[in-house]
Amino acid sequence: MTTAMAYRYSIGILGLVMGLAGCASSPKPPEVIWVSVVDLYTPAELKRDFNRRVADLFEKEGYSAKDIADGRLLRVACGLGTDYTWGSYAYLPADLPVKKGQVLRMRVDRPGNDERMGINPVLGSVADFRWEGVLPAYRYISDWKERNLALNFERVPLDPGQQGRYVVSHGSYVIKCRQE
Questions:
Q1: pTM exceeding the 0.90 threshold for the entire prediction
Q2: Which of 32, 45, 70, 174 could lock 169 by a disulfide, CB 3.0 to 4.6 Å apart?
């Protein structure tokens, strides 16, 4: 084997390893994961044309107009790896008020697939975690030229209690699904 061939093989193997390092598997039943509230569905939102499939799915699953009016049906998401966000529909226990961005614990009963998201039960909030589930990962630097910087943005630092809890996905910190 020549040096050039060895170099090409090394680059190919390195590329494969780096590609696999960014991959993560989707949550599987009965895994308990952390998720961020993306949308709280209201009756008015479910009447919109683009939410018709969601409304039909909730109805087919047996959720009532009262469940929707009480704010018990939502869409959640979490990060599995760099630029890979996983999503699901979820339903809340009757006595758990939530807000958009809040981090919750959810059991994966039906993970869904590429065609449609599953619907899974929320177990509760994450009481000792006070930050939102999706945060900006970068900020704009308006005077970057004056400061002789090569870029006009910089990474937003996380508080110590947040470190290791997020992945960066599409320019945002997204709460990790798995919190080992």
A1: no
A2: 174
